[in-house]
Amino acid sequence: MPVVVKKTLGNLLQDEHNNYYELVSFFLDSDISNLEKEKKATYLLNDELDKIQLDKISLPHHPQDIKESYKNENQIVGQCYQDYLNRRKAGSEREYFKNVGQAFEFLIKVAPVKKVDGSWLYSLMKYWSDPVFHDLILIYLEELGLGQAKANHVCIYDNLLRKLGLEDFELFLEDEYYHQPAIQLALAYAPPVFIPEIIGFNLGYEQLPLHLLITNYELKELGIDAKYFNLHITIDNLDNGHAHKSFKVFENIYKKYKDKEAFMEKVKRGYALNQQGISSVHIIKNLNLENLVHAILKRKALVGQWVHNDQQEIGCKTINQWLTNPQEIGSFIDQLVEKKWIKLNCNPEESVFWRMISHAEGKMYGVFTPAERQIIHDWMGGEQHASKVLPYKNNLSKVEPLQDYLFRHMLDEQLQNLQAKVDQTDRFELKFCKLMPFLAPEFHHQGIGLWSTRKYAELLFPYLTVPAR
Predict the structure, then answer these.
(1) Final residue of a structural domain among 365, 396, 427
(2) Nearest alpha-carbon partner for 340 in 353, 358, 330, 331
(3) Within a domain: residue 334?
(4) pLDDT tens digits for 371-382?
(5) What is the rounded distance in angstroms from the CA atom of residue 336 to the CA atom of residue 69?
(6) Residues sharing a CB contact under 8 Å with residue 117, sequence separation 6 or more, in sequence order
(7) Contact of 178 with 113, CB cutoff 8 Å
(8) pLDDT single digits (tens) 225-275
(9) In a domain, 425, yes or no
(10) Which end of the chain is more exposed for a tag (fewer CB within 10 A), N or C?
């Protein structure tokens, strides 16, 4: 292991892991062994589980009560969604995203957790020989699209961000947005003692929430591809989808567990891990384009502080002086508003600043990406003048779609070696051992991971797949 990696590992194992971004990076680092990841996962999960108050967890104590509770909750969600649709049909406005910029902000802030989708089940892949885990293994493989890039959840979300020009915006995010992803990745590398917690976590995560239904509806209205969200509505159902499979595994393992009280306590704590970190609902309720605009301008200030004309003063300072200290961006914006360079709640075309960054002849044209301009536009436009539908929706249809052939023809030496090793061994268990490392969260959405997923699924569930090749 490289010295730098050893040093990073040592620091992470000794600190109080208050930097969740580093933890996520640690678990996604393919140069760090699974053994070291398991150690860190144990440390992190024990710490997170110790924070949970068992008496405040709403999950019922008996399997039958849980099943009834889920049915009731499903009905309530369905009725609430119908009420939402009725309000919309009666003429009410969107309730989550008032404009495209807000939708962009949401997609940026949920990205860290979407990019590790399903990862908490990875640690169960080694139990392929035990049929009791097959439903959870199948859930994980389906999260991975059964090895098809166009159905792999991480590929789909990455592709959405790429098409919208949002792939670099995670640099703006505070550390708290990586809290829940760190937990999910810790579960991905958790030792067997945490199996009940993984089952509990999965029970909570596979339920269909109201916010997912409304998000899917409103993104479509705005002209944004909602495939990722729609996919979760169809597969996470209580009838025969992931929610059903999750409950079936829970019931089967509950029956086999000798100490049912201890089992249920661990399941409940795992279920409660869903609530750690920032939720989608919290993100939606706290959308704030102004803060995001500040973050965009702060980043621009780092590279633009020396390139402006020092003769132009705004509020007794030159633009270069303002940009020298990114922490003063808020005050700088206030000055731009006061001097009428920015006119809020008006057509952005009335603002000098907007014309400078959006018109081909503008002095700052090309400094901001289309996505950054969209966010700035909708912040300036406010209720009346923000974009109600994605302006470049039609252009996105010309973007090359995500296709499996992109990965089939990018066979690197590592993948060719893996294919040869798997083909040359006749032992079933050895095939799985060789494939499993590439189904890990850091690999499964890459070419070698997609092929490995197809091969793994072909071996364990041959009725589901087209043979890997």
Answers:
(1) 396
(2) 353
(3) yes
(4) 999 999 999 999
(5) 54
(6) 143, 153, 154, 157
(7) no
(8) 999 999 888 775 555 578 888 888 999 999 988 999 999 999 999 999 999
(9) yes
(10) C
